[in-house]
Amino acid sequence: MRLSSLHFYLLAIVILLQLPAFQSSYPDYNEALSKSILFFEGQRSGFLPQDQRFTWRANSGLGDGSMSYNTDLRGGYYDAGDNVKFGFPMAFTTTMLAWSVIEFGDMMPPNEQRNALVAIRWATDYLLKTVSQMPNRIFVQVGDPNVDHSCWERPEDMDTPRTVYAVDAPNPASDVAGETAAALAASSMAFQSSDPGYAGTLLRTATSVFQFADDYRGAYSDNSNIKEGVCPFYCDFDGYQDELLWGAAWLRRASQDDSYLNYLQNNGKTLGADDNINEFGWDNKHAGLNVLVSKEFLDGNTYTLESYKSSADSFMCTLIPESSSSHIEYTPGGLIYKPGGSNLQHSTTISFLLLVYANYLAKASQAVNCGNVIVGPSYLRQQAKKQVDYILGENPMGLSYMVGYSNKYPQRIHHRGSSLPSITDHPQFIACKEGSIYFNSTNPNPNVLVGALVGGPGEDDVYEDDRADFKKSEPTTYINAPFVGVLAYFAANSDPG
């Protein structure tokens, strides 16, 4: 009997010793949330505030807009690992940060909600500058990407042309203007309780920006005077029509103005609301549009928007492996995969839509009929959780794709500021080509861009941690932005039921 008790006691000790290690393998969503927001401070352009937490960054782009247009275009974010401010993806990033706060802000710890609002305002302050010459002009980009991409230098050392790209009426920019209107309208909702005055400014401005988008219809990248600067980087590949509907949808939600409801009802078919419903990102808003507009239908406010709800249902069914209409590709390890690079942008945006739609359905006590299977909110949340957990380390590589999270994460990301020594450590100027030795180095980046989500692994779940492989190793703001909301949800609801 004693021997049996001793064995039992020893076995219990072994189990207890193993238990902490087992528990620590679970994702820490609160830590990941904090770091996902922190990342944006590493992407800042302009004068940095005293509470800047990445001390290896310093002021940059302080003359933006002053030379060619005698205007102030300081601020905003560099979109990725380069030193260019692309307006199209920056506006989408802003919309997704704001949507994250609108849907999940109450689930964030108060300090992180404040940090998220700071991240949004860094963008909206800049976007307001880009539309300060409305109703006839919108600034869509700062920095010559062709020259910038031939250099490897810190943003603080930039000596490349800070070319300003503007679109003047009647030349069209429906895509950038429509997304900017969406960003400002969504952000007005995010700031409504904490700063109603600022929220009012954002909403009023969004109205005039949307008018510009709708009055002069067309893609900004079709303009010959700016095409070489915006293409092939952030061309409008999928058409401008979705941004018009997206902008109108956000203005409807922010203002409750019936004119935008009428716009969605009257223009849905002609602007292709039923097209390309299986994608959501900086260039294609269709899936997000349908989810967003579905809320109004599910809330019972109007039944004339049922086609948007049907399209949202169809999109959800494409994500369900058991569904007969499933056609989203997954890696062997379970990550949503689409060819083209920066793959995690698809995983984070789709995870966001899964959670948002699950919430809308749950409130209305509804489920999605995928023909051979009925899918409820809990299942949608479980699908999102699989993506999140994969990104945070539960994958065949055992690698966290968030920099600075967990013990194993990418060390050699494709990012100039992160890979070059800071001006504190190396005060001397590093010219355009002088940074090549750091780019070609096999050493880990000296500055850890905490919270950055890289492009992610290939279709075989393999990630090589190669700085030169920008499709896999480059972080972008629009990969991180939707992940903020996703992490906020799981930080508050670790059980996705």
TrEMBL record:
The keyword NAD does not apply. PROSITE patterns: GH9_2, GH9_3. It comes from Cephalotus follicularis (Albany pitcher plant). Residues 29-487 form the Glycoside hydrolase family domain. The active site is at residues 414, 465, 474. Its EC number is 3.2.1.4. It catalyses: Endohydrolysis of (1->4)-beta-D-glucosidic linkages in cellulose, lichenin and cereal beta-D-glucans. GO terms for molecular function: cellulase activity. GO terms for biological process: cellulose catabolic process. Belongs to the glycosyl hydrolase 9 (cellulase E) family. Transmembrane segments: none annotated. This is Endoglucanase. Keywords: Carbohydrate metabolism, Cellulose degradation, Glycosidase, Hydrolase, Polysaccharide degradation, Signal. Residues 1-25 form the signal peptide. The keyword Membrane does not apply.
